[in-house]
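One example copied in:
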Amino acid sequence: MQSRRTGIEQPAVIGTTGNIRPQDSAGNGAMARPKGSIQGSTRPKRPFLSSTPGVALLATLACLLWGSAFPSVKIGYQLFGISSADTASQILFAGTRFTLSGLGVILIMSLVRRKPMRPSSSDIVPAIVLSLFQTTLQYALFYPGLSHASGVGSSIVEATNTFFCILVASLIFRLERLTARKLIGCAVGFLGVAAVSLSSGGTATFTFAGEGVVLLSTIAAATSSSLIQIFSRKGHDSVLLSGWQFLIGGLTLSAMGLLGGGSLHPSTPGALALLGYLAFISAAAYSIWAVLLAHNPVSRVSIFGFTNPVFGAILSALLLGETNVVSPWMAVFALGMASAGIIIVNWTPNVTPGSSAAATDEGVGTARQSACPSVQTAAEGDARQATS
């Protein structure tokens, strides 16, 4: 290979990845690589977000925040005078909450980055599409379905979100491979959620107008998980998309609630404070989740969603005094099952990065980027707790 400086043919060096790399004019091996690149390594640029401690810490934090929405929404319905049968007001309440979430993300990140977080022309369509599945369709389907579904049935259906996230990512968008280990981990976590739901009393039924519509809501949420991963791969800012999709979806839901005759009547200043907290929950938790999904496979992140209803049950017992709904031992059992599912899904054999074993397990794309999340936000149990 000829040097462009000296015109002298330079010997080639075969790198660890099998690529042929020319020596530089000084004969020092490889030509200069982009700063920060690691030859023969699949290590991500932001290792903490892809490391096991990083994923566990941030995903658990997001799920804990979402879990706190269970009792908070129930308290919010009381403070705003919303009955369990008032679907239009519930949609308006959710729309107001997500509009505030979007404004909060946009404002705070604009201050942090010291420039307005405005979407570029290429970000507009992804933000609209994401808001359609993540916020508008999910909640517009969830609340009407919930009004015709049993509390037990809807909670069990909602727990299938993790399954659908992995199935949609693997079978429809081909973002990662579907393995027996992932399915087993999901099944273990699902058993824990089902045990909590059935132990709370009631009967698990299934009707299309009720649990069937809740199931469609769950599929919409699962689709949004793949979409945020796809858009992140194409270079879109996941936090920017998070803020703007909340704003677009929140305004859409608010309009739907108002057109349906919904109304909000805060009874005390504390009602507005609680609404602000709920807006913070959505903004913080989903932004964390979206960032994790931009750096990890869907299965690695989504499996943590099984802890949402467990945290919700524990916090409901602490904040609402609902100690008779789920026994402490059942909560511990469910949390243990969810933890076991997390370990099963995230366990990987000791293989060399880039090997055929690693490629087979992680999927079609690069291992560090095949992310997508179950955004286990399938309504975060918002109204389900209000009907129990």
Notes: The radius of gyration is 23 Å. The longest helix spans residues 52-79.
